[in-house]
Amino acid sequence: MKLIITTLLLITNISSFGQTKQEKLEERQKNKVEIFSSQEKDNLQAFVEAQVDRMKLSENLRDDYYMILGYHTNKMARLDDKDAQLTEDEVKIKFKKMLTNLDGDVAEILTEDQFKIHKESFDKIVTSVYNRNGWDKK
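RESULT FIELD:
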């Protein structure tokens, strides 16, 4: 009997946790602001892939680079969500700090030449973000 009650409580908690997690996910999606259209994202992805090819990374290093890039760009993309409640100046400050963190992380795994390619290509993306938001690139 005790096992049945414990099992029922566990199932109830897991079920409510799943609902809570789903509700949070739905809330995040509702507050998400898209900076780039789907087509623009596809173009950016193709551009990044071409630049990564130029770096001539090993398969493992490529995976690490993409993981770092994905981690930082996902955080950057969430900066201007409606629920973040940041001013435009705060978004720009945090964005610049995140760029510095991204560069620091990838510098640890790339050679000097590979890092130059990263900087060169990512600066083009950053310029696009600044232009899209009407920011001065200072």
